[in-house]
């Protein structure tokens, strides 16, 4: 914020230069000098007491104000004892003025004011007053939460995600204007895209759940038009002093959901099985299924068998389970090759059974093997 004073600088009668060293008057004595900046009101107040043995109507009082931690003159102004312009009581010997101002909250140091009085050819000694300005500290983003990945919707559909930032400010949460963000994709390392809508609020509006809790939030809409890429976000908080927090970066990856594939499906055991008698376990079938998923094997949630019996009824056999653990006749763990040991019960009807591999991913996509495996159940 630029330093701004809403007053006419050296307007009206010319203000004399402040005296150097001691004045030449025995009839003017200054005391109780005061300079005070009220940040909450944006006002600078100057005051000094003048003792004299002449008519107060013949006295002019002035002040030079110097920039914090700077020897250069900032501005000069007259003071009044008329019960106006910041002076409380007319004729009480206290000369004052209150100036509407907007000091930058980033300023720190000592604000010094020199006071002197002039009566005809007499000039008083100078007295000084000082007030310390404390700079407004910038906000701090403690954490950012957003999903690491999001699947790009199908054409004509949209999805919504919520991003949140926890923010604090040494000068209080009320000093924070909002949290903003800029974004670029991973391939563009130079240009950050910004928009007036790229803002998180803590007013309990939209995606923000609780007003004033220091958690700023907004919702983002993703459609089929979004690129499949790593979107890099950088967040920053802005306060009313114009301070900006350090950037906090986060990445959201937009990806496409790929339907899983069945690459191989075969039976490694005999295709003719004797129906077990009551109380016996019988022989088992050992199936091998090789599956893949463009989003990674971790996206596969289920591998099973679909069986059609001689009567034409089809069922999904989720038990016994499939294994890719390097055990259970599986040669290597986590390589996409699954084994399933299946069998028959004494109640199964005789005849030919048709098995197909069935694979499902985390988004509910299901595929069946193109080919089926025939197994014949015979009697003893």
Description:
The chain has 380 residues and is mainly β. It has three domains: 4-133, Immunoglobulin-like (Sandwich), CATH 2.60.40.10; 140-255, SOR catalytic domain (Immunoglobulin-like, Sandwich); 261-378, Macroglobulin (MG2) domain (Immunoglobulin-like). The protein contains no helices and 26 strands. The chain has strands at 4-5, 28-38, 43-52, 60-66, 73-79, 94-102, 109-119, 122-123, 127-133, 140-145, 149-151, 158-168, 176-185, 199-200, 215-223, 230-239, 248-255, 261-267, 272-274, 284-292, 300-308, 314-317, 337-343, 351-361, 366-368, 373-378. Strands 19, 21, 22, 24, 25 and 26 form a six-stranded mixed β-sheet that branches. Strands 4, 5, 7, 8 and 9 form a five-stranded antiparallel β-sheet that branches. The N and C termini lie far apart (94 Å). 22% of the residues are buried. Mean pLDDT is 87; it is low at 1-13.
Which SSEs are present, and which pair or pack?
Elements: E1 4-5, E2 28-38, E3 43-52, E4 60-66, E5 73-79, E6 94-102, E7 109-119, E8 122-123, E9 127-133, E10 140-145, E11 149-151, E12 158-168, E13 176-185, E14 199-200, E15 215-223, E16 230-239, E17 248-255, E18 261-267, E19 272-274, E20 284-292, E21 300-308, E22 314-317, E23 337-343, E24 351-361, E25 366-368, E26 373-378
Parallel strand pairs: 11-17, 19-26
Antiparallel strand pairs: 1-6, 2-3, 3-6, 4-5, 4-7, 7-8, 7-9, 10-12, 12-15, 13-14, 13-16, 16-17, 18-20, 20-23, 21-22, 21-24, 24-25, 24-26
């Amino acid at each position: 914020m630029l330093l701004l004073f809403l007053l006419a600088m050296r307007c009206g009668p010319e203000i004399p230069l402040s005296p150097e060293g001691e004045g030449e008057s025995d009839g003017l004595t200054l005391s109780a000098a005061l300079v005070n900046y009220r940040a909450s009101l944006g006002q600078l107040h100057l005051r000094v007491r003048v003792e004299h043995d002449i008519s107060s109507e013949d006295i002019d009082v002035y002040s030079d104000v110097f920039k914090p931690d700077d020897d250069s003159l900032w501005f000069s102004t007259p003071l009044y004892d008329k019960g106006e312009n910041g002076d409380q009581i007319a004729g009480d010997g206290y000369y004052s003025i209150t100036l509407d101002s907007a000091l930058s909250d980033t300023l720190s140091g000592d604000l010094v004011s020199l006071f002197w009085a002039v009566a005809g050819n007499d000039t008083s000694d100078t007295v000084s007053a000082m007030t310390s300005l404390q700079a407004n500290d910038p906000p701090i983003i403690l954490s950012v939460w957003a999903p690491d990945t999001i699947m790009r919707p199908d054409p004509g559909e949209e999805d919504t995600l919520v991003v949140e930032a926890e923010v604090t400010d040494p000068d209080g949460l009320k000093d924070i204007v909002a949290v903003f963000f800029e974004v670029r994709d991973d391939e563009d390392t130079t240009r950050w895209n910004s928009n007036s809508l790229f803002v998180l609020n803590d007013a309990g509006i939209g995606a923000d759940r609780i007003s004033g809790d220091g958690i700023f939030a907004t919702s983002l809409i993703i459609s089929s038009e979004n690129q499949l890429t790593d979107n890099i976000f950088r967040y920053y908080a802005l306060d009313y002093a114009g301070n900006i927090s350090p950037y906090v970066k986060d990445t959201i990856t937009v990806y496409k959901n790929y339907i899983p594939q069945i690459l191989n499906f075969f039976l490694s055991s005999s295709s003719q099985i004797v129906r077990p008698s009551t109380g016996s376990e019988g022989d088992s079938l050992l199936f091998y299924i090789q599956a893949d998923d463009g989003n990674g094997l971790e996206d596969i949630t289920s591998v099973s068998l679909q069986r059609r019996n001689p009567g034409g009824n089809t069922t999904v056999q989720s038990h016994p389970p499939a294994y890719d653990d390097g055990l259970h006749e599986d040669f290597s763990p986590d390589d996409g090759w699954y084994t399933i040991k299946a069998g028959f019960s004494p109640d199964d009807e005789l005849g030919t059974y048709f098995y197909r591999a069935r694979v499902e991913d985390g988004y509910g996509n299901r595929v069946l093997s193109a080919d089926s495996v025939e197994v014949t159940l015979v009697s003893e």
